[in-house]
Amino acid sequence: xxxxxxxxxxxxxxxxxxxxxxxxxxxxxxxxxxxxxxxxxxxxxxxxxxxxxxxxxxxxxxxxxxxxxxxxxxxxxxxxxxxxxxxxxxxxxxxxxxxxxxxxxxxxxxxxxxxxxxxxxxxxxxxxxxxxxxxxxxxxxxxxxxxxxxxxxxxxxxxxxxxxxxxxxxxxxxxxxxxxxxxxxxxxxxxxxxxxxxxxxxxxxxxxxxxxxxxxxxxxxxxxxxxxxxxxxxxxxxxxxxxxxxxxxxxxxxxxxxxxxxxxxxxxxxxxxxxxxxxxxxxxxxxxxxxxxxxxxxxxxxxxxxxxxxxxxxxxxxxxxxxxxxxxxxxxxxxxxxxxxxxxxxxxxxxxxxxxxxxxxxxxxxxxxxxxxxxxxxxxxxxxxxxxxxxxxxxxxxxxxxxxxxxxxxxxxxxxxxxxxxxxxxxxxxxxxxxxxxxxxxxxxxxxxxxxxxxxxx
Length: 458
Known about the structure:
By secondary structure, the protein is of the alpha/beta class. It folds into 4 domains: about 1-190; about 200-285, Translation factors (Elongation Factor Tu (Ef-tu), domain 3); about 305-420, 3-Layer(aba) Sandwich (Rossmann fold); about 430-458, no CATH class.
């Protein structure tokens, strides 16, 4: 990850800075800085689309697809902030004149800036429906191309054939190609065509089980199966009008010879709430290649796993894979499964059977309704090895993750040994923070509301 971040800093900030310093000697500092910001924004947006391709090299460099999506989001927001500064600072250099395409280039720049503001606002306001967000998100690439044309046609003190010009055009060219790749691959999936670059495979649903608000189903490959490791996730869609959207879900089963996959999904959003209603045995599922590095170093050192709720899914697959490894006494794995009560513990019986057969795997159920909340003291007492040397993996709510990170940091556990994946492909400003902000203002204005405010569920 450090290498990848270094590459981005050098590519987006340092190289254009060196080029601007060399090309803008004797020209107004304010305009030079504005032009520099414009170049930085173009490069940032280019890398946004390169990250969105899901290429294996990208995933490897950024230690998992989830990390690359987080960086994709922040690069996009950062680029918008830089574009705003670029727009506010006077970029005109009168000594360069105004070529025939100058006015058009300026108009394109204004159009691109206004359009990006609207579309990125839709991106960060998560109360806007997912389908609308996904549809409008595709048009950001069009505005990106408009911004590249703005750069190409605006007067500047260097040629497009100069080292700086060629560098910017080459990175932007990769960004445009990446945009069209992501766009056309989506069309290919929509028309049910195989897209070999994405590794899509067709499966049939062979089993379905609904427990409360969680649906577990198993699918079998129609021809070839995807390759995956325990702890990885795939993007999946179904041959049904209500289930055609592509969403990422963790595979809750270790690799098997027959190539079957299992998914266990909680009804948390519009799409996942539709799954139990419309998913039927015999239905066709389209599954992408597997992503993620969550269980990559399985069994190589003493491990602590912490799962909360449906976050158990990668650990079920990892426990299965661990049980197939050679059983050794020098390494052990402790899984702390956090649930409100035992009845909500999906795959509990399966995990108990693995713990009974595999001496290196230990299961600890933490039921909050019984007063058995997870604690640092409980973890230290249960594991029986030096916590400083352990590898920690977590899957669950962000609040619990941050608490765990604080605990392990206090025990001098290196942060690089705390592993987790970010499953919010789209994140931003939801309805709860907005409501809380408005209500806080009301509390400040009307103190008597405070008593009612403390009883709110968020």
